[in-house]
Amino acid sequence: MNREIIIDKNMRELNPQGDFSFPFNLLNIVLSMYPFCSFPAHWHPEIEVTYVVDGEMTYIANQKSFHLRKGDILFVNANVLHAGEQYQNSDCTYFCFCLDPLIIHGFEHSRTEEVYINPLVQDVNFSYALFNGEKEEYGPLRPLIEKLIKVTQAQELGYELLIQGILCEFWYYVFRYYQEYLTRISRQNQISQNVRNKQLRRLKNSLAFIYDNYTDPITLDQIAAASHTSKSEFCRLFKKTLHQTPFDFLLQYRIEKSLPLLRQEDFPITEIAIQAGFSGPSYYAEVFRKYMRCSPSQYRKNYLQSVSNQTP
Questions:
Q1: Tens of pLDDT along the chain (312 residues)?
Q2: Closest alpha carbon to 204 in 68, 8, 6, 4
Q3: Whether the Cβ atoms of residue 142 and residue 74 lie closer than 8 Å to each other
Q4: CATH assignment, 24-184
């Protein structure tokens, strides 16, 4: 089964994360289910929490790279740009849940929202919290997350009440982490963080340019110009944050956008190549094979065969 994160030109994820009546969504994910065994940089207004149950992965939140291992819990704040990929070609199985803090604080302007939610969520410098078992006071978190998974999967009568209770307890630990974070930061750290935020905004501008113009012939100079920085500085920042060159990212994104078209049996591959931003089918096939380890026609054949085998 293939997974796909749908994003708009501003890099916002469009996949639903629950609904207004119950803004919570839990997913069990194997990283290799994504094209290229990775998920692209994106953001969303919901909180995201990742709990690794097997394997390892590299997770990037803003400009911070995490090597996540079994048992690690990573909290990612609202509107934070994040991406993930395999660590040294090893697969990773993890649970990911997204939530709107509304599910915790209830009505607007409640004490819970004003004191415990908004200061944390609205702090643009507080992007993440990693709980890896090093501190004893965070020891109850893993059993708590495992209970949340069990309750959500069982969906017995009243499970929503249990989920809300677990999320409130989970937020208690996140809030404690945030208080420790506030005591750690100094003025110098704050200045450094502001610089990183400025760099991140520039990077977001360049990614938005790629997402909006990938079907056209675009150059590195144009992508760098969208970030309002020099080409050399832009390339350094891009490689440091996303672990690949801007050109490799562009090619990979074009291939990724071509996959839904390849799953349509009657769509000519030549036309797919042009729509995905390649100069012709030969170059498209060359790049496709580099990233997908097969030809476009073989990918289509394998996909259609898998769909046929699933049909009753």
A1: 567 888 888 889 988 888 889 999 999 999 999 988 999 999 999 999 999 999 999 999 988 999 999 999 999 999 999 999 999 989 999 999 999 999 999 888 899 999 999 999 999 989 999 998 667 778 899 999 999 999 999 999 999 999 999 999 999 999 999 999 988 876 666 667 777 788 888 999 999 999 999 999 999 999 999 999 899 999 999 998 888 999 999 999 999 999 999 998 888 999 999 999 999 999 999 999 999 999 999 999 998 888 877 766
A2: 8
A3: no
A4: 2.60.120.280
What does the CA dihedral 183, 133, 79, 165 come to, rounded to 10 degrees? -100
Domain-wise residue ranges, the chain: 24-184, 204-310
Residue 295: helix, strand or coil by DSSP? Answer: coil
What's the per-residue H, E or C state across 239-261?
Answer: HHHHCCCHHHHHHHHHHHHHHHH
Q: Give me the CATH topology for the region 204-310.
A: Arc Repressor Mutant, subunit A (1.10.10)
285 token code pair: 């096939």
Contact of 282 with 301, CB cutoff 8 Å: no
Among candidates 83, 46, 49, 80, which has minimal Cα distance to 201? 80
pTM of the predicted model as reported, rounded to 2 decimal places: 0.73
* Residues 6+ positions from 211 with CB-CB distance below 8 Å: 7, 8, 9, 10, 11, 253
76 near 68, Cβ under 8 Å? no
